[in-house]
Design brief:
By secondary structure, the protein is an alpha+beta fold. The longest helix has 14 residues. It is globular and about 40 Å long. The termini are far apart. The chain binds FE2/S2 (inorganic) cluster (2 copies). One FE2/S2 (inorganic) cluster (FES) binds next to loops.
Length: 148
């Protein structure tokens, strides 16, 4: 099947039920999207499908053929970081970093939907799990990105 990932077409030969996460990581070589739980709970595998945040560990590849898939590798515009990525760098919030690509993708989708989110909006939208407990830093970085 043909997948459109970060603006490029990729022909992949996989079982249609293969989760998108594994196609991205193992077929296409985009390893920025992480595997955490595998059951749609942690958000480490978050990517955008047609601009909306999706947990790729439970998304069959066949369901996204023909749609626009964006991963953390495709969030920046060339050498210009997305405003969420810039805020992340400026706030230096990540600890181990494992969950952070998913956090950034979820945050970018939230700001597209709600350019000035409240704390409640952030809590409702960012249900990603961070074992290092960076939730407060994530919230601050999202507010900073909203003002950028
Ligand atoms: S790995 Fe997909 S939600 Fe945890
Ligand atoms: S920064 Fe370590 S899991 Fe979130």
């Amino acid at each position: 099947m043909r997948l459109s990932i970060n603006g490029k077409a990729h022909d992949v030969d996989v079982d249609p039920s293969t989760p998108l996460l594994w196609v991205l990581r193992e077929q296409v070589g985009l390893t920025g999207t992480k595997y955490g739980c595998g059951v749609a709970q942690c958000g480490a595998c978050t990517v955008h499908i047609d601009g909306a945040p999706v947990r790729s560990c439970v998304m069959p590849a066949s369901a996204v053929a023909g749609k626009k898939i964006t991963t953390i590798e495709g969030l920046a515009q060339g050498s210009t970081l997305h405003k969420v990525q810039k805020a992340w760098v400026e706030h230096d919030g990540p600890q181990c970093g494992y969950c952070q690509a998913g956090m950034i993708m979820a945050a970018a989708a939230l700001l597209k939907e709600k350019p000035r989110p409240t704390d409640a909006d952030i809590d409702a939208a960012i249900t990603n799990i961070c074992r290092c407990g960076t939730f407060q830093q994530v919230r601050e970085a999202i507010h900073a990105a909203a003002k950028a």
